Every structure is written in structure tokens, then in C-alpha cells.
Amino acid sequence: MKNKQSSNVLIVGLVGSLREESYTRMAVNLALSGAAKKGAQIKLIDLRDFDLPFCDGSGKEADRYPDVLRLRKEVAQAQGIILGTPDYHGSFSGVLKNALDLMGFQEFAGKVVGLVGVAGGALGAVNALNDLRKVGRSLHAWVVPHQVAIPQAWKHFHSDGTLDDLEYQKRLQEVGEEVARFAYLLSSAETRKFLELWEQAMPNPGGEGR
Asked: Is the pTM of this model over 0.90?
């Protein structure tokens, strides 16, 4: 059942693959469908639709490439982010790394992040997702514990984006559900008020003098 309050939450899915028929895109779409089941608004961000330069560390990339600002704006307006990647040489894709390098705390800090990955091999994309988890921490995001890495994706995905293994499909949707759930909690006025009171609370005198 959809929650009217959670409909104010936007979850975006960032696809770290440029393939036309991308299993990563299929996986992210399934994860987003889980967020939609929780009543969240959803949006797919496909990096094929952006003209992005290589990040050169100058911070001036947006001066020459308007799509850098567009990407930042689309991610910044979300309360939750699902990052999807293929496994390339034991880590996440270069196109996703570059997109993340073109963004920063303004887009990610305090946001809820979920991770999904696909691989052609039998080992899955576990290492790629572990590397993304470190990036999420570095950006001060809340990365949810649940993640999904699908090995030998070519065996499991149908052309319509569904999976032959319903357990995989369920787990992908659970990532989206979890991101939507925690994004709503973190964005609610009640939670913000609690966190403000927690930060303002006096230190415990019993913990001093150790």
C-alpha cells in the first residue's frame, strides 16, 4: 500500500553502463520499481543521455559542459539514490566513476544510497559494490546494508528486463524498498527534529573522567 507521505520522496537510479541493451539498466529499473511500491517517486538517470567530460579536478567542468550541471541537479533533488554498475575488472565502471567524480557532497551527503551490480562471470559484482560502498562513505552518504550482485547476468535477464530467477528480482526490488523507506525516515520532519535534539543534548556526566 502506498504511503501518501512517502510520495514526497524522490529516488533516482544512476545507470553506470553505456550499453544499449544493458543488464545494469534492467537491474536499476527493477530496484526503482521496489521504491515505487513503497510510494516513492522514481526517476532513471541514464548516463548515455549526458555529454560529460572527464573530470580533470579543476572543478570547472560545468563551465564548458551544461550536462554536468544537469546531472548534479537531477541527483541533488533526490532523497535516495540507487547506483547500478557492471563489474569491470573486479570493480565498478569507469563511466560511473567519472560521473561520481563530477559530483560531491552537495549531491550525496546525508542521502540514502542503494547498490546493485551485474557481472558476466560467476563471481558476480561483489567487489565492485564493495568499492562503491567506500565511495558512498567518503561522500557522507548512508549506504543501506542490503545490496544485490547478479552473476552471469546474461543467463538470467530476459529482453523485457525481467529475470528468470524470481529471488533475484525480489532482492533487487528490496533494495529499492529499503532506500525509499530510509529516505522517507531521514527526510521526515519528525526525524530531523529528533536528530537536532540529539545533537543539542547535554553530554552524559557519567561518561566523564574515564
From this structure: no
